[in-house]
Amino acid sequence: xNISKEQLLLYAVTDRHWLxxxxxxxxxxxxxxxxxxxxxxxREKELDEESFEAEALVLQKLCRQYGVPFIINDxxxxxxxxxxxxxxxxxxxxxxxxxxxxxxxDRILGVSAQTVEDAVRAEKAGADYLGVxxxxxxxxxxxxxxxxxxxxxxxxxxxxxxxxxxxGITVDNMSELENTGICGISVISAIFGQEDAEKAAEGxxxxxxxxxxxxxx
Length: 217
Prior knowledge:
Elements: E1 10-13, H1 26-34, E2 39-42, H2 49-66, E3 70-73, H3 76-82, E4 86-89, H4 96-103, E5 108-113, H5 116-124, E6 129-133, H6 149-158, E7 163-166, E8 184-187, H7 189-192, H8 197-212
Parallel strand pairs: 1-2, 1-8, 2-3, 3-4, 4-5, 5-6, 6-7, 7-8
């Protein structure tokens, strides 16, 4: 599936860790969408399948209201079942070529990459975009490996599909990613770990537009 670079400008990934007690993802996600998030990934590592599906359906409906692509981390079966826009997989998850086979040609496939080899292989396997990182130290993923800026640049040059940078990105350090070739940023705590997710998204969106020379949809 073709995905525009503009749609990947501000890519938010959910994380239940940042929720207040008794709160679901719906409220902070809608705030993030109101603030200008252009792409949303539901990432759940601890929910049971029934709860995961219920959460996914709520967020999918929200994203459709705002005209924002909605994808699910890793769970290909659920994405197909609820007709999500796509799936994102890491290097340790199911092979990208197998994910593409299961999903068919019309859904979005995102793949994590840390090296040029990862990136080229993912593109050949049918990836629509790459998530490359961690570009800065991050507390959101325990096993995150840092990717030097030069490697990020090399990856962007080696593939023809869009690349988003992930890992430890904030409104303060994102300017360090200018001129690397990325089309956008992927964040968790920079939106969902803030007191006001809408305001945080607005700030990130505005700065990303200026740095990466794109006007999001």
